[in-house]
Amino acid sequence: MASTDKPSDPEYTSSSTPSVPEGVDYFKFDVILRFLLFAASLVAVVVMVTGNETELVLYQGIPVLQPAKFRYSPAFVYFVAALSVSGLYSIITTLASLSVVNKPHLKTKLLLHFIFWDVIILGIIASATGTAGGVAYVGLKGNKHVGWPKICNVYDKFCRHSGGSIAVALFGSIVTVLLIWLSAYTIHSRIPK
C-alpha cells in the first residue's frame, strides 16, 4: 500500500511562519512631498497676507482712500487660517516621516495615520481654496445680478496676490492628493500576494 504521508514541499519546510512582505519603500518621496506641501502652504499664506493695497475710490462722488486687505473677507481669513494649519501639519508629518526612515517597524502603522490625516487636510485645503477662489472670481468679474461691481480693475495688486495665492494653494492640494496615493500604494505593496 502507498504511504498516506504527503511529500514535504521545500517551500513550506524552510520556515514555520511566513515572512511579512517588505513592500516598496517610498518614505523619501513622502518627505519630499511633505516639504513641498509646507512650501506651498507658506508661500500661499505669505502672498495672501502681503497683498494689501490702498487706492482712491469714489464714494458718493467724493474720492476716498479705501484699503483692500485679506482681513476684510471672511473667505480670505479662512483661507489664511486653513493654509496655516496645513503648513503646521506638514512640518509635523515631515518630522514623523524622517523619524520613520530609521525605524522601519513603525512604517505601516504610521502610513494608516498619514492617510487618515492627509484626507482631512486635503478637505481643509480644498474647501479654503474653493471659498477664496469664489470670492476672488466675484472680485474679478463682479456680479451684475446682485449689483456687485468688479474691483480688480481698481485693486490690481490685491487681486494678483489673491489669485497667485489661490494657485499655489491649488498646487498644495494636488501635492496632498499625491501624498494620499503614495501612502495607499505603499500599504498596498505590503499586502502579501
TrEMBL record:
Its main location: membrane. One of its GO terms (cellular component) is plasma membrane. Residues 28-174 form the Casparian strip membrane protein domain. It holds the Pfam family CASP_dom. The keyword Cell membrane applies. The chain crosses the membrane at residues 31-51, 75-98, 110-140, 166-187. It is found in: Cell membrane. It is a multi-pass membrane protein. Keywords: Cell membrane, Membrane, Transmembrane, Transmembrane helix. Homodimer and heterodimers. Belongs to the Casparian strip membrane proteins (CASP) family. This is CASP-like protein.
